[in-house]
């Protein structure tokens, strides 16, 4: 390497950093007003806006004000929670800033990319996401520049060409000088590895169907009321007077709090995971983790320690061990050290030998299967015995005494002749056996993937108690019994995408761990792609989760986070379906049986607003971890919710019938029905949020305080007759007793069903 390309000193870098600032640009501030306006332009908002116009046309100004407040609240709340989610992801993105291999003071080191300065000499390789504009000074490198040009085609660049910040190195390697940082770079933005995909996860797609269930139910019951009004001798004016009630029935079915509950629950868990060593680059990864039932695991760095040591070395050359090992060290990558590079260098150093460097070095790629160096007039190749034996045809005759089953093999060729074989062994992590047992306990089938041979893979599988068969990738086909697999050996990175798709076609929800460039397509394809701690930048960008710590324990935490989100959203969906069905059925049957809608319009609007307040808080509720992958059956879920609603509706109709026949006025009954609906909504949340009886468990502080606030506000409105007919303390107490007894009886029937849900 020439003197002019030897990189900066640390003192020079510090001076430039002080002059020009960090290699980052503040991200655009979140535009709350713009986000607020966007929330006024969607399906839910259109329904509210149509109802608002209808209420104004009919002269219902008080109700119009309530609907307007609900519309503005939904928009404000949605924008607020979006801002909160954005803040969480921004905090995480700073932890996902790429690392860069840079030469300072004549030594190669990995630093955070935000500390790069112009003039820095950096090493670039496949999988890197450039954090600054650079001028390539050696090597041939192919880039994906779609992040700045919008075109997906690969662009090949050579010496003196420019690489731009934000682009991804697809293949090749080389050296480059930083030419522009921060706002002065081509992209002019902070480079992080957050996946900004807005695609909804499986859970959100399922819950969207709830809207359709509710709209269908409301449509049917509205039609029933309209037909019944004509049969009861009603005229057009009567129907017009009922329109505000019918509009409110539709408004009550709108899941105003659903986006907020989603955002709150996902952000809550993303923050929690970041404190436990897991960064979330795509929030849908959390919710999809609850469905996970198969996990493809890299052996090295995940099941085994991220450190490998040479256990045996055999010299096949005519040169002495000292010469051969020092030549071998020249073929290890000193710029971007991997596990094998460290293992061989450590072995050479422990023998008191010198680590050699070469001015003509070519790093390892999966395409060639080896790294290469020119030194002391020798050509040295270090890598896969399978690949190198294709160069030295006589290699297979020399290795008959080598036990390749003892560990991972690394072959050495000097001048295209087999000079030696290293046997490396990985140490199984102390937590792997217990973590794998936890994964299996949660209904997840773990399958180990490794590039090692079958014997080595079988030994590791036995050590961590992975039951089943370990097969070679060459024996893997459509007839393979996946349920009996413990591991797959001889796996190349490009095989992984094929395996992910294979298991998905078999009906599995697939998780995948990976670290390399060639792992990226598989990480992107898997429902839960997990980039391990030492993964390439492009792998971290492709996955939905990024581990900060080695090992499997963090993956168990991801599963638990997913289950917590699912449990909360199960409570939300059951509650929303049950409460809406109860409201619409109670009002419909009340009209059919008693010739009037047994609830004041003002009370209906207030009830709808209060319900959305408490259901939003469900996103922070306490949960109980389930130990099987979630598998939602929407029809079954709707059936359970309808059963709950039917129980509450029957109790409500009986109570209304009693009040009607024992002298209570319509106004008093209307307020008592309002109180009953509020209390039943609170009890439905208490019942659906746990698999125990509701009096045996308690909600989170946020949920509990919001429920308490709703009940206190309900009491004040009912006792003082605000926006509804005033009722006595005795009437209020009567409703409380009826609601409590109904909740106990319903829960006694509900819990056996809930445990089998």
UniProtKB/TrEMBL annotation:
At the top level, the lineage of the source is: Bacteria
Q: Does this entry carry the keyword Nucleotide-binding?
A: yes
- Domain Cation-transporting P-type ATPase N-terminal, which positions? 1-60
Q: Which InterPro entries match?
A: ATPase_P-typ_cation-transptr_N, ATPase_P-typ_cyto_dom_N, ATPase_P-typ_P_site, ATPase_P-typ_TM_dom_sf, ATPase_P-typ_transduc_dom_A_sf, ATPase_P-type_domA, HAD-like_sf, HAD_sf
Q: Where in the cell is it found?
A: Membrane
> Coiled-coil region(s) at which residues?
none
**Membrane protein topology class:** Multi-pass membrane protein
Key words, A-Z: ATP-binding, Membrane, Nucleotide-binding, Translocase, Transmembrane, Transmembrane helix
Q: Would the keyword Secreted turn up in this protein's UniProt record?
A: no
- Where mainly found? membrane
Bilayer-crossing residues are 61-79, 210-231, 243-265, 640-659, 671-690, 702-723, 729-750
Give the matching PANTHER family.
Answer: CALCIUM-TRANSPORTING ATPASE (PTHR42861)
Q: State the name under which the record lists this protein.
A: HAD-IC family P-type ATPase
